[in-house]
Design brief:
The complex is a heterodimer. By secondary structure, chain A is α/β, with parallel strands linked by helices. In chain A, strands 1-2-3-4-5-6 form a six-stranded mixed beta sheet, with helices on one face. Chain A is globular, with a radius of gyration of 13 Å. Chain B is of the alpha+beta class. Chain B is built from five helices and four strands; from the N terminus they run ααββαααββ. Chain B has a four-stranded antiparallel beta sheet. In chain B, strand 1 and strand 2 form a beta hairpin. In chain B, helix 1 packs across helix 2, helix 2 packs antiparallel against helix 5 and helix 4 runs antiparallel to helix 5. Chain B is globular and about 45 Å long. Classes of the chains: A alpha/beta, B alpha+beta. Chains A and B meet through helix 2 and helix 3 of A and helix 2, helix 4 and helix 5 of B.
Amino acid sequence: MKTLIEKENKTPEVKIGDDNHQLIVEGVIIPENPDIFFDKLNNIVEETYTKNNKLILDFKLEYFNTGAARFLYKTMLKLKNYESIEIVWRYEEDDEDILESGQEYEALTGLKFTYEII
Amino acid sequence: MNIRDDIISLLDKTLVSIENKTIKKRIISCCIELVQNNLKHNKYPAELRIQKANNFFIIQITEQMSAKDIENTSIKISTINNLTDVELKEKYQKNIANNSVNTGNGLIFCKLKSNNPIEHIISKSNSGNIIISKIFVKFRVYENLD
Protein backbone atom coordinates (compact mmCIF):
# COMPACT_ATOMS: atom_id res chain seq x y z
CA MET A 1 0.00 0.00 0.00
CA LYS A 2 1.16 3.47 -0.76
CA THR A 3 0.02 6.65 0.96
CA LEU A 4 -1.21 9.27 -1.47
CA ILE A 5 -2.49 11.82 1.05
CA GLU A 6 -1.00 11.91 4.54
CA LYS A 7 -3.32 11.85 7.52
CA GLU A 8 -3.68 15.18 9.38
CA ASN A 9 -5.61 16.26 12.46
CA LYS A 10 -8.75 17.00 10.50
CA THR A 11 -8.36 15.01 7.29
CA PRO A 12 -7.91 11.31 6.60
CA GLU A 13 -5.14 9.26 5.09
CA VAL A 14 -5.72 8.13 1.52
CA LYS A 15 -3.84 5.04 0.43
CA ILE A 16 -3.82 3.01 -2.72
CA GLY A 17 -3.82 -0.77 -2.54
CA ASP A 18 -1.21 -2.91 -4.21
CA ASP A 19 -3.75 -3.75 -6.87
CA ASN A 20 -3.65 -0.05 -7.83
CA HIS A 21 -7.41 0.30 -8.11
CA GLN A 22 -8.45 0.28 -4.46
CA LEU A 23 -8.41 3.63 -2.68
CA ILE A 24 -8.69 3.52 1.09
CA VAL A 25 -9.87 6.63 2.91
CA GLU A 26 -9.28 6.22 6.62
CA GLY A 27 -9.67 8.59 9.56
CA VAL A 28 -11.68 11.75 10.19
CA ILE A 29 -12.89 14.45 7.81
CA ILE A 30 -13.61 17.53 9.89
CA PRO A 31 -11.86 20.48 8.27
CA GLU A 32 -13.60 23.87 8.22
CA ASN A 33 -12.96 24.00 4.46
CA PRO A 34 -13.41 20.50 3.06
CA ASP A 35 -12.94 21.61 -0.55
CA ILE A 36 -9.14 21.53 -0.26
CA PHE A 37 -9.02 17.88 0.77
CA PHE A 38 -11.78 16.80 -1.59
CA ASP A 39 -10.15 18.48 -4.58
CA LYS A 40 -7.12 16.25 -3.95
CA LEU A 41 -9.26 13.17 -3.37
CA ASN A 42 -11.37 13.72 -6.47
CA ASN A 43 -8.24 14.10 -8.61
CA ILE A 44 -6.87 10.85 -7.22
CA VAL A 45 -10.19 9.08 -7.79
CA GLU A 46 -10.32 10.22 -11.40
CA GLU A 47 -6.69 9.32 -12.06
CA THR A 48 -7.05 5.89 -10.50
CA TYR A 49 -10.16 5.08 -12.47
CA THR A 50 -8.71 6.37 -15.73
CA LYS A 51 -5.66 4.12 -15.36
CA ASN A 52 -7.57 0.99 -14.39
CA ASN A 53 -11.12 1.35 -15.69
CA LYS A 54 -12.28 0.17 -12.31
CA LEU A 55 -12.21 1.46 -8.77
CA ILE A 56 -12.89 0.34 -5.24
CA LEU A 57 -13.45 3.28 -2.91
CA ASP A 58 -13.02 1.95 0.60
CA PHE A 59 -14.15 4.21 3.45
CA LYS A 60 -13.13 3.68 7.06
CA LEU A 61 -14.30 6.91 8.66
CA GLU A 62 -14.59 7.69 12.32
CA TYR A 63 -16.07 11.19 12.13
CA PHE A 64 -17.01 13.58 9.39
CA ASN A 65 -18.59 16.99 9.80
CA THR A 66 -21.64 18.26 7.95
CA GLY A 67 -19.43 20.22 5.56
CA ALA A 68 -17.57 17.06 4.61
CA ALA A 69 -20.90 15.26 4.28
CA ARG A 70 -21.78 17.49 1.30
CA PHE A 71 -18.45 16.87 -0.39
CA LEU A 72 -18.61 13.13 0.22
CA TYR A 73 -21.94 13.10 -1.55
CA LYS A 74 -20.52 15.03 -4.51
CA THR A 75 -17.55 12.66 -4.77
CA MET A 76 -19.83 9.65 -4.73
CA LEU A 77 -22.22 11.21 -7.21
CA LYS A 78 -19.42 11.60 -9.76
CA LEU A 79 -18.86 7.85 -9.56
CA LYS A 80 -22.27 7.26 -11.10
CA ASN A 81 -20.69 8.15 -14.43
CA TYR A 82 -18.21 5.31 -14.09
CA GLU A 83 -18.63 1.59 -14.61
CA SER A 84 -16.98 -1.09 -12.42
CA ILE A 85 -17.23 0.93 -9.24
CA GLU A 86 -17.42 -0.59 -5.80
CA ILE A 87 -17.91 1.32 -2.58
CA VAL A 88 -16.92 -0.38 0.65
CA TRP A 89 -18.26 1.26 3.78
CA ARG A 90 -16.59 0.07 6.96
CA TYR A 91 -17.94 0.66 10.43
CA GLU A 92 -17.39 -0.55 13.98
CA GLU A 93 -20.01 -2.99 15.15
CA ASP A 94 -21.51 -0.60 17.72
CA ASP A 95 -21.29 2.49 15.51
CA GLU A 96 -24.84 2.80 14.23
CA ASP A 97 -24.27 6.39 13.12
CA ILE A 98 -21.53 5.61 10.62
CA LEU A 99 -23.53 2.62 9.35
CA GLU A 100 -26.61 4.81 8.94
CA SER A 101 -24.58 7.44 7.10
CA GLY A 102 -23.46 4.83 4.61
CA GLN A 103 -27.01 3.65 4.10
CA GLU A 104 -28.15 7.23 3.53
CA TYR A 105 -25.46 7.79 0.90
CA GLU A 106 -26.41 4.54 -0.77
CA ALA A 107 -30.04 5.67 -0.93
CA LEU A 108 -29.14 9.20 -2.07
CA THR A 109 -26.69 8.17 -4.79
CA GLY A 110 -28.16 4.90 -6.00
CA LEU A 111 -24.68 3.36 -5.88
CA LYS A 112 -24.24 -0.11 -4.46
CA PHE A 113 -22.43 -0.21 -1.13
CA THR A 114 -20.77 -3.16 0.56
CA TYR A 115 -20.79 -2.91 4.35
CA GLU A 116 -18.00 -4.39 6.41
CA ILE A 117 -17.70 -4.52 10.18
CA ILE A 118 -14.28 -3.63 11.53
CA MET B 1 -3.82 22.33 23.29
CA ASN B 2 -5.50 24.43 20.68
CA ILE B 3 -9.05 23.27 20.06
CA ARG B 4 -8.62 24.03 16.40
CA ASP B 5 -5.68 21.66 16.15
CA ASP B 6 -6.90 18.53 17.87
CA ILE B 7 -10.50 18.96 18.88
CA ILE B 8 -11.34 15.26 18.95
CA SER B 9 -8.48 14.35 21.25
CA LEU B 10 -9.30 17.24 23.58
CA LEU B 11 -12.97 16.29 23.75
CA ASP B 12 -12.20 12.61 24.11
CA LYS B 13 -10.20 13.34 27.25
CA THR B 14 -12.92 15.62 28.61
CA LEU B 15 -15.61 12.99 28.11
CA VAL B 16 -13.68 10.03 29.47
CA SER B 17 -16.44 9.25 31.99
CA ILE B 18 -19.00 8.43 29.29
CA GLU B 19 -18.98 4.70 28.75
CA ASN B 20 -21.53 4.59 25.95
CA LYS B 21 -19.38 4.98 22.85
CA THR B 22 -22.25 6.07 20.61
CA ILE B 23 -23.33 8.87 22.94
CA LYS B 24 -19.77 10.01 23.48
CA LYS B 25 -19.18 10.13 19.75
CA ARG B 26 -22.37 12.09 19.17
CA ILE B 27 -21.41 14.64 21.82
CA ILE B 28 -18.00 15.05 20.23
CA SER B 29 -19.53 15.40 16.78
CA CYS B 30 -21.97 18.06 17.98
CA CYS B 31 -19.19 19.99 19.69
CA ILE B 32 -17.29 19.98 16.42
CA GLU B 33 -20.32 21.30 14.56
CA LEU B 34 -20.98 24.09 17.06
CA VAL B 35 -17.35 25.19 17.24
CA GLN B 36 -16.96 25.13 13.48
CA ASN B 37 -20.20 27.06 13.02
CA ASN B 38 -18.62 29.78 15.13
CA LEU B 39 -15.31 29.64 13.25
CA LYS B 40 -17.03 29.82 9.86
CA HIS B 41 -19.80 32.32 10.51
CA ASN B 42 -18.84 34.54 13.41
CA LYS B 43 -16.00 37.02 13.76
CA TYR B 44 -16.29 36.82 17.55
CA PRO B 45 -14.78 33.87 19.42
CA ALA B 46 -16.94 31.38 21.30
CA GLU B 47 -16.75 29.61 24.61
CA LEU B 48 -17.60 25.92 24.64
CA ARG B 49 -18.64 24.21 27.84
CA ILE B 50 -19.62 20.65 28.53
CA GLN B 51 -21.24 19.97 31.86
CA LYS B 52 -22.86 17.03 33.55
CA ALA B 53 -26.20 17.71 35.20
CA ASN B 54 -28.29 14.88 36.63
CA ASN B 55 -28.81 12.46 33.77
CA PHE B 56 -27.62 14.78 31.06
CA PHE B 57 -24.48 15.98 29.43
CA ILE B 58 -25.05 19.52 28.23
CA ILE B 59 -23.02 21.22 25.55
CA GLN B 60 -23.17 24.98 25.78
CA ILE B 61 -21.69 27.35 23.25
CA THR B 62 -21.65 31.04 24.15
CA GLU B 63 -20.77 33.70 21.61
CA GLN B 64 -21.26 37.34 20.91
CA MET B 65 -23.30 37.88 17.77
CA SER B 66 -24.59 40.67 15.63
CA ALA B 67 -28.31 41.38 15.84
CA LYS B 68 -28.79 40.00 12.35
CA ASP B 69 -26.93 36.77 13.09
CA ILE B 70 -28.88 36.32 16.31
CA GLU B 71 -32.13 36.65 14.43
CA ASN B 72 -31.05 34.17 11.76
CA THR B 73 -29.86 31.69 14.38
CA SER B 74 -33.08 32.00 16.37
CA ILE B 75 -35.20 31.38 13.30
CA LYS B 76 -33.14 28.33 12.33
CA ILE B 77 -33.31 26.82 15.79
CA SER B 78 -37.02 27.47 16.09
CA THR B 79 -37.64 25.87 12.70
CA ILE B 80 -35.50 22.87 13.56
CA ASN B 81 -37.19 22.34 16.92
CA ASN B 82 -40.60 22.36 15.28
CA LEU B 83 -39.81 19.62 12.78
CA THR B 84 -40.23 15.92 13.43
CA ASP B 85 -37.20 13.64 13.19
CA VAL B 86 -38.43 12.35 9.84
CA GLU B 87 -38.78 15.91 8.52
CA LEU B 88 -35.37 16.83 9.88
CA LYS B 89 -33.69 13.86 8.22
CA GLU B 90 -35.33 14.74 4.93
CA LYS B 91 -34.24 18.35 5.26
CA TYR B 92 -30.69 17.30 6.15
CA GLN B 93 -30.44 14.97 3.19
CA LYS B 94 -31.94 17.54 0.86
CA ASN B 95 -29.36 20.09 2.00
CA ILE B 96 -26.62 17.53 1.33
CA ALA B 97 -27.96 16.64 -2.09
CA ASN B 98 -28.40 20.29 -3.07
CA ASN B 99 -24.99 21.22 -1.70
CA SER B 100 -26.71 23.92 0.32
CA VAL B 101 -24.55 25.95 2.65
CA ASN B 102 -25.52 28.03 5.69
CA THR B 103 -28.77 26.10 6.01
CA GLY B 104 -28.29 25.04 9.62
CA ASN B 105 -27.24 21.47 8.85
CA GLY B 106 -24.90 21.51 11.84
CA LEU B 107 -27.79 22.43 14.13
CA ILE B 108 -30.05 19.87 12.45
CA PHE B 109 -27.36 17.28 13.10
CA CYS B 110 -27.21 18.28 16.78
CA LYS B 111 -30.97 18.01 17.20
CA LEU B 112 -31.09 14.59 15.53
CA LYS B 113 -28.18 13.16 17.45
CA SER B 114 -29.15 14.59 20.85
CA ASN B 115 -32.81 13.69 20.46
CA ASN B 116 -33.70 16.83 22.41
CA PRO B 117 -34.77 20.31 21.38
CA ILE B 118 -31.95 22.79 21.02
CA GLU B 119 -32.22 25.56 23.59
CA HIS B 120 -31.30 29.10 22.70
CA ILE B 121 -30.96 31.95 25.15
CA ILE B 122 -30.26 35.50 24.05
CA SER B 123 -29.06 38.14 26.45
CA LYS B 124 -27.73 41.65 26.22
CA SER B 125 -24.90 43.30 28.05
CA ASN B 126 -25.75 46.00 30.59
CA SER B 127 -24.96 48.64 28.01
CA GLY B 128 -27.19 46.85 25.54
CA ASN B 129 -24.53 47.03 22.86
CA ILE B 130 -23.41 43.43 23.03
CA ILE B 131 -25.75 40.56 22.28
CA ILE B 132 -24.83 37.15 23.61
CA SER B 133 -26.14 33.90 22.18
CA LYS B 134 -26.11 30.72 24.21
CA ILE B 135 -26.96 27.44 22.50
CA PHE B 136 -27.53 24.31 24.57
CA VAL B 137 -27.53 20.77 23.24
CA LYS B 138 -28.55 18.17 25.81
CA PHE B 139 -27.75 14.47 25.75
CA ARG B 140 -29.30 12.00 28.15
CA VAL B 141 -26.52 9.64 29.10
CA TYR B 142 -27.53 7.98 32.31
CA GLU B 143 -30.49 5.86 33.20
CA ASN B 144 -32.53 7.31 36.06
CA LEU B 145 -31.70 5.11 39.00
CA ASP B 146 -34.64 6.31 41.13
